[in-house]
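Need residues for this backbone.
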């Protein structure tokens, strides 16, 4: 099925919009305008009006005073963050303050893919039972996730039969290849890295060859691909019958 979203009578969903904006912005995350964080004394924080962009999701912020969570004993680390949960239809974005040492890991999922939650920090500070001190704001402006292109050839004789959970899930063949970055100093790919797009390839310009590669591409993108330590593992239902010079756009590290 082919869907043209910008067409009479077609409904453009929030997810389709977000994926488009994510692509156009290069998967940018951060403050677009305003949103300055200041201390009002005691445990009060003020967030100025502004705009935030998180993986294609546009968020307008109005000025607001927030009462920060305080420590139960002595000074501890504090943080103000925007908590975005795209599965929450009533209040998808909320302010969250934290007070503990060390601060918990941020949850930063692929909210236009398999995840629903993304936490964006706006300020850190020290906080005791009464007041906030040492306020440090996140620098204004877009935080641009590093997206790199990586290649790896899926060989026709490199496919191995699956077993266990992979086989139970309907994937009959798998292959792991070592990734080669387009740039020599590209960040390392890990199991937490995010695939920004599906697998692609560079057309050869030879019609017959590209037709075969298109068939292999369809098989690969209908399957499942996961990242490892400098590798990708691709699982497919049907075994491709040609070598495939694969390319992936990947954001190493999984988020900020």
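Answer:
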């Amino acid at each position: 099925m082919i869907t043209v979203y910008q067409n009479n009578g077609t409904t453009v969903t929030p997810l389709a919009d977000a994926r488009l904006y994510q692509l156009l912005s290069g998967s940018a995350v951060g403050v677009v305008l305003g949103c300055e964080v200041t201390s009002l004394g005691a445990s009060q924080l003020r967030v100025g009006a502004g705009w935030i962009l998180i993986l294609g999701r546009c968020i307008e912020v109005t000025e607001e005073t927030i009462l920060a969570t305080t420590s139960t004993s002595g000074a501890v680390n504090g943080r103000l963050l925007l908590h975005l949960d795209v599965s929450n239809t009533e209040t998808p974005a909320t302010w969250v303050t934290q007070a503990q040492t060390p601060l918990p890991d941020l949850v930063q999922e692929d909210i236009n893919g398999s995840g629903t939650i993304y936490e964006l920090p706006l300020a850190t500070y020290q906080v005791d039972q009464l007041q906030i001190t040492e306020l440090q704001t996140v620098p204004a402006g877009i935080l641009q996730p590093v997206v790199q292109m990586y290649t790896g050839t899926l060989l026709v004789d490199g496919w191995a039969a699956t077993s266990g959970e992979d086989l139970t899930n309907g994937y009959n063949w798998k292959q792991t290849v070592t990734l080669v970055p387009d740039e020599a100093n590209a960040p390392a790919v890990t199991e937490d890295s995010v695939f920004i797009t599906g697998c692609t390839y560079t057309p050869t310009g030879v019609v017959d060859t590209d037709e075969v590669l298109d068939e292999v591409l369809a098989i690969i993108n209908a399957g499942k691909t996961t990242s490892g330590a400098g590798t990708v593992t691709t699982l497919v239902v049907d075994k491709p019958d040609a070598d495939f010079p694969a390319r992936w756009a990947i954001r190493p590290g999984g988020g900020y």
